[in-house]
Amino acid sequence: MRFIGKANYWSGFSGLWMKECGSANFFIPGVLGALVSPFAFMIADQHLQSFALVFSLSALWMAFCWQVVKLQAQEGAILFPALKHHVYKQGGLILLLGYAFNALAMINQPVLEVICSMLFASAYCGYFFLLTQRSSRHFKHNSYFFMLLLMAAMFFGHQPTTLAALAIPPSLIALYFIFTRQKNCHWHPEAYQTYLNNIQTGLLPVHTFTPAWLTQKFRHFLMPMSYFSGNLLLQTFQLFVLAGLLAIIAAVFFDANSQFLMMFMDVLTIMVAIFVCWSKLQTRMSWDQLYLLPIYSSLTSIKRAYHIAACKLALCLALYQLIIILVCDSLSALQPYSVYILIFAGSVSSFMLCIALGSIVNNTISLSLSCMFALVLDSALKTYLLEHHQAISSVLVMFGYCIAISLLLLYASKKVE
Questions:
Q1: Helix (H, G, I), strand (E, B) or coil at 315
Q2: Are 20 and 28 in contact (CB under 8 A)?
């Protein structure tokens, strides 16, 4: 206890924020988003500007909420009160730095637009943080809450005053929580079960809202990947499908352009890949246990089937993304066919790159960083090829990139543990 009390602000930083997927998969994207957000505001598309800022701040807040859940699940928080204060100090400094980086957007953007977006993210995330402090069980709704914020930023990104108005209700509720707080963030036995459930289910709700026969067919189609992921795989796929439908609504009623929708769907594709890789790291299932089932002849065939299932999922996600973009473009003007080939191939390659890297690495920090690297690399390559579009040469470059990813995936299939 005395050590914790005398420790500096950053003692145990990597262990708290970057070792567990629950925190790292929010913290690392939030930090990267905070670094990229000021540059996103140089782009003329207001949807992308607000989305980048809200995504960054929300991810950092969600990482902080995860630490609150963890504190409620640990008896050590009672034995060592300084531990709670230490976590709160680090969380406060992280949020402060996140706000500082996002505030740099005011250099290139009207102050009112930046403040409204920050107010919107702060109001809802602050409310959710106080709610999680009261009881960890509320954290099971974090996936819906996080998606709600991103959807609102996508719909009303070009209307900063609307975002500010939407921030009023959660602000009032948050003030009520502050003035009536009692025994916030205290240990209780249910919190430990919530903590374990969040680890095993990937911070997603338990129910899939899908008929049993459809769930069975989905799992069989993606076997043995579904063996490791369970309902997590179906839940992430459902969120991806729902996000695509909402993207069409954003294009029809809120004038969201195809460039923003493409980036939005790319982010969701990487999120699906993160959850898939995460499930393999967190699950108690192993390759040896799967080998005991009378399905595969050898361990090598199991690992090969896993990556074939990953290819199937990548094709399904990329095809759905392509359909969404085609529907949105049909409302205005269709682009050349080579553009859609680039979008489709880029989405497949980014997902497969995440799966390959996730099969090679064996810890959460490397997994999160690898997936963020895949997102940045894919977005940069795809944006460059689309901006300097030449039908034949651009497709050939993307084709070569896909071959390189396929070779990496083949190497990963031999290295996967």
A1: helix
A2: no
d(CA 199, CA 195): 6
Q: What is the pLDDT of residues 9-54, one digit of tens each?
A: 677 777 777 777 667 777 877 887 787 777 665 555 556 677 778 8
d(CA 113, CA 47): 11
CA nearest neighbour of 392 among 347, 341, 323, 349: 341
- Give which of 137, 143, 146 is closest to 72, Cα–Cα: 137
- Which of 6, 26, 5 is CA-nearest to residue 16? 26
Task: Spell out a b/e string for 173-197, using b for 16 or more CB atoms within 10 Å of the CB, else e.
Answer: bbeebeeeeeeebebeeebbebbeb
- Rounded to 10°, the helix 231-253/299-330 angle is 10
pTM flag (> 0.70): yes
The 10s digit of each residue's pLDDT in 245-255 is 877 887 777 67
The alpha-carbon radius of gyration of the chain (Å, integer) is 22
Amino acid residing at 123: A
